[in-house]
Amino acid sequence: MKKFFWPLIITISLSLGILLGGFITSASYRAKGVYFTNHNKLKLNRLIDFIEQEYVDKVDTDSIVDKTVTNILEQLDPHSVYIANEQMKSVSESMQGSFVGIGINYYFYRDSIAVIKSVADGPALKAGIMAGDRILAVDGYKLFGKQVTNDTITDRLRGEENTKAVLSVYRKKTNEELAISLARNVIPLKSVDVALKLDNNYGYIKLNRFSSTTYTEFNTKLKELLNKNIEGLILDVRNNGGGYLDQSIKILDDLLDEGQVIVKTVNKGGVEKVTYAKGKGLFRDKPIYVLVNESSASASEIIAGAIQDNDRGVVVGRRTFGKGLVQRELMLGDGSAIRLTTARYYTPSGRSIQKPYKNGIEEYNNDLRARYTHGELYASDSIKVADSLQFKTLKGRIVYGGGGIVPDVFIPIKGKHGEDTTIMLMRSGITSYFVFEQIDKDRLAYEQMSSESLIDFVMNDNRLYNRFIKHLEQNKLYFKLDRRKELVKHYITAEFLNQLFDEENYYRWLIKSDDMLEKVDKLIRNNVE
């Protein structure tokens, strides 16, 4: 790969979360007695029936219907979407915040399932499954060999709650073959990646989505941080594409004073619903900083907009994605669903942060690439704002509508000459895979290291760096990284900590080179709130 276009990768990796983010579920419209009897609306049914009965060749009419529904929704807006039944399960699990399984993170390494680590308190960990173990079979069904697919692995490892499974396991580090019995159970998909008390005595909470469990997780972690006597809070919603709006509202209710506006929504009939803070929250008197970037969307933008418009804290980072549409979900009876835009939401000052989509979905989806090309991610004076869309915060500060939340303090992407691309590469799966491969060669030795000795070893061993470059070349990725060798080592070290220790060790090391947190630290020292 001669060139590496990070905006395209960001768009692909985050499109699902952003497109599905910010919706409100509803009961099936059929339960409400909604029936479509207009003759024009029956044309599609008649056409499909005619094709099935008379067309000269065999046709997959289900596929035709899926494409037709998708095309219809694309004429409306970028966030009204159709979710096919085969996708609906994984989407629902992500939004529910859990699934039923055995609780492992794994690679299909070469030709077998290799465990990276077992999930805390999950069935696999309790049964004794260790990092580096190979799962060869489940209940006698073979799970190794080139013919095994990801769908097969998922089907065999997951199942109904409390169902039993016997795993055939090869433990490489002790050269043992084991039969391990366990019962599948609910495995949480965490919304809170980490909650830390930093050296500046501020709490740091990183949110990756807004699922049905997000507020509960946030509230629990905030209480833990308050028990550690934090002096303020840094809420990180970078790369958070949104989700359930009610979860962002509950979080803001913990942060705002009674009577302050959280969000406004306006439906097709022009009916405005205003949501106010109840004033009984946990964290209403201490400073707040909200970290955002170009991939913070929907519910993330509700939080940033409410904090900014109420002059409650400081928004730091880059202009957010710009999604201000609310969806409701309609199940279609075959496991598929439609998420249809039914309202627009507005920040407390009245701003719609939905970016324009009148020029079509393709241009809309290319917006992040356009921001990169126009230099907006590198310089605040390149941010396009509409002077005609001026609004005022509670204290009279001017803020702008028309597409995303413009931060109070702008932080450019790190480095104009490839450093941003390097960071994208280092946070990708290819780095994780490389680190697993290195650990797997001598797991016993690595597991005997403390986190401090591991950091010292990885940061000072050029052989690991050289192996990583060779690993990239073997995967046809050719980068000139020597100028950024220390940055590459930093991220390799972070991944070693992630696989051998836990998220806290991983994040504590990773944030040592975080530009936004460095800026927040300076703002705290200068009493900017």
Automatic annotation (TrEMBL):
InterPro entries: ClpP/crotonase-like_dom_sf, PDZ, PDZ_sf, Peptidase_S41A, Tail-specific_protease. CDD domains: cpPDZ_CPP-like, Peptidase_S41_CPP. It comes from Myroides albus. PANTHER family: CARBOXY-TERMINAL PROCESSING PROTEASE CTPA, TAIL-SPECIFIC PROTEASE. This is PDZ domain-containing protein. Residues 88-172 form the PDZ domain. Pfam families: PDZ_2, Peptidase_S41. Belongs to the peptidase S41A family. One of its GO terms (molecular function) is endopeptidase activity. The lineage of its organism: Bacteria, Pseudomonadati, Bacteroidota, Flavobacteriia, Flavobacteriales.
